[in-house]
Give the backbone structure.
Amino acid sequence: MAKFELEHTEGMRWIKVILNDEKVRAERGALNHMLGKITMDTPLPSLRAILISFLSEESLLRPYYKGTGELYLESSLGGFHTFELNEGETWVLQNGAYWASEGGIELSLYRERLLTAFFAGEGFFWYQTKISGKGKAVLIAPGPVDEVTLNNGRLVVDGNYVIARTASISFKIRRPTRSLLGYYLSGEQYSRVYEGTGRLLIATTPFWRLRIGQKGEAQDPALAELA
């Protein structure tokens, strides 16, 4: 099995992939450099997949890397999370969360329901990356990732913090309060509600360097210099 190692320095993090006559797949444009006898190939997707890609933020044009050596992917102020897909599991990933996976992991696109997409602010056509199979996958995460397991349970999140969920978990947009008046008085936005049985990956707290970088500047000049 390919090895995914998280390396870091100066507040930056990146994924190093060790291949021993193996194959992995990575996000388009993710390559930084590679050492050894590794070849890169980008298979053309179907016409349907190309048309769907025009309607979404996700692309299926993700190259394969095969051979023996070391593959280094681009660094980030954010983080990366490696997790294992169990046999028969299918995961739905937040837009932009996919980063890399073992060669046996299959990628496709998943479309949310029209009303869910609309109330989530994604328009009527919201496609996300779907992965299935058995093996390891790497996700981009804004901060440390926790795994939540639901057993016919419910998770309510006030924000776009869930970066991945098993397809067995349903997703809806709901008011956080029972009444409309209570909703306006609460000061909260519409919540993201996840229900069912399965697993979720959630990142609620971003790394501070990433937060500063997203703001563009910091009030403290010293922190701005560190960022």
